[in-house]
Amino acid sequence: MLLRFSRGDSYERGFVLKDKATQQVITDTFDEVYFTVKRNWRDADYQFQKRMTTGGITSDGDGHYTLYIQPEDTNNLAFGDYDCDFEFKRNDGYKKTFPGRLTLDKEVTYQGNE
């Protein structure tokens, strides 16, 4: 999974959760979905995180989800590459993680120039 956009921009991304082996859509109900961004996966603290229960991710039905990133999530981050992942979790202990890369591209009109 690769995500790329200019730092400080709004970003929405829809995706369908599929089984890697069968390519079948996974329509299970999850109690929480996390999207976590760190400069490096080894870091203890994240740069920002979105959760389904707080509205940063929506479950649109039939295995489709949408991620919402707001300008304030990335305004103060450095340009460049970050490690990220989506984690899908149920209250019975089941969880599935999908790692990826987030790239924040340059911007010329900074928040202070708007």
List keywords for this structure.
single chain; 114 residues; mainly beta; three-stranded antiparallel beta sheet; 1 helix; 4% helix; elongated
SSE diagram, text form:
Layout: E1 2-6, E2 11-16, E3 32-38, E4 48-51, E5 57-61, E6 64-69, H1 71-74, E7 80-89, E8 95-105
Parallel strand pairs: 1-8
Antiparallel strand pairs: 2-6, 3-4, 3-7, 5-6, 7-8
Number of helices, where a helix is a run of at least 4 consecutive DSSP H or I residues: 1
* CATH H-level homologous superfamily name: Immunoglobulins
- How would you characterize the largest beta sheet? 5 strands, mixed
Apparent shape:
elongated
Helices and strands, in N-to-C order?
Answer: EEEEEEHEE
Number of strands: 8
CATH architecture descriptor name: Sandwich
Judged by helices, strands and strand pairing, the structural class is mainly beta
Beta strand %: over 45%
CATH topology name, in short, is Immunoglobulin-like
Which CATH top level class fits? Mainly Beta
Multimeric state of these chains? single chain
Terminal residue distance:
31 Å
Helix content: under 10%
Mean pLDDT across all amino acids: 94
- Strand arrangement, largest sheet? 1-8-7-3-4
Low-confidence stretches: none
Number of domains: 1
Compute the gyration radius: what is it? 15 Å
Task: Explain what the structure shows.
With 114 residues, this protein is mostly beta strands. It has a single domain (2-105), classed as Immunoglobulins (Immunoglobulin-like, Sandwich). Helices cover 4% and strands 47% of the residues. The chain has one helix and eight strands. The strands form two sheets. A five-stranded mixed β-sheet has the order 1-8-7-3-4, with no helix packed on it. Strand 7 and strand 8 form a beta hairpin. The protein is elongated and about 45 Å long.
